[in-house]
Amino acid sequence: MTRLYCLPPIIDERARVLILGSFPSEASLAAKHYYAHPQNQFWRVMSALLGSDLTGMDYAGKQAALKASGIAVWDIYASCDREGSLDSAIRQGVYNDFTRLRQWAPALKKIGFNGLAAARPRRLVEGLGYVVCQLPSTSPAHASRSLADKVKSWRDGLGITD
Question: 104-113 pLDDT, tens per residue?
């Protein structure tokens, strides 16, 4: 297996909400771009939540839009061994250092886990004083729920109002 390393977080001092995924897909690692797989619904969900079409933006524009809206993105694993892109294939995962979040984003209050696998360190993150919620995965491996249903769940879970 190959040792893989996560992407840098999308975060700044304005962040009030952090979305934690598990680990970037092969497509995301190759593109150096969170949620780069064309079937992943993350950018469509964010577009609906923010009322702006992020899907048509370049990656720098997407990052800027998230930051301006107080949303940060990162993954639970700093590194892992994995063949392919499935969370079930992750081996020897090392968590990111979540204690750095207070320094990077002092206004951060809520952390949403993008899917069940991402919620593995839930108790650790709650222990740092954050409110947490588990959100339906935007991964193409979890396509049984409609986009509209995911948007509603994300809106409710993150407390984002229209």
Answer: 999 999 999 9
pLDDT at 71 over 80: yes
Angle between helices 42-50 and 147-158 (to 10 degrees): 60
- First and final C-alpha spacing in the chain: 44
Please confirm, yes or no, whether 114 is among the known catalytic residues: no
Give the active site residue among 28, 40, 41, 47. Answer: 40
What is the residue whose two structure tokens read 């899907």? 55
- State CA 97 to chain mean position distance: 15
Q: Which of 93, 111, 114 is nearest to 102 (CA)?
A: 111
Domains and CATH numbers, the chain: 3-158 (3.40.470.10)
- pLDDT tens-digit series, residues 112-132: 999 999 999 999 999 999 999
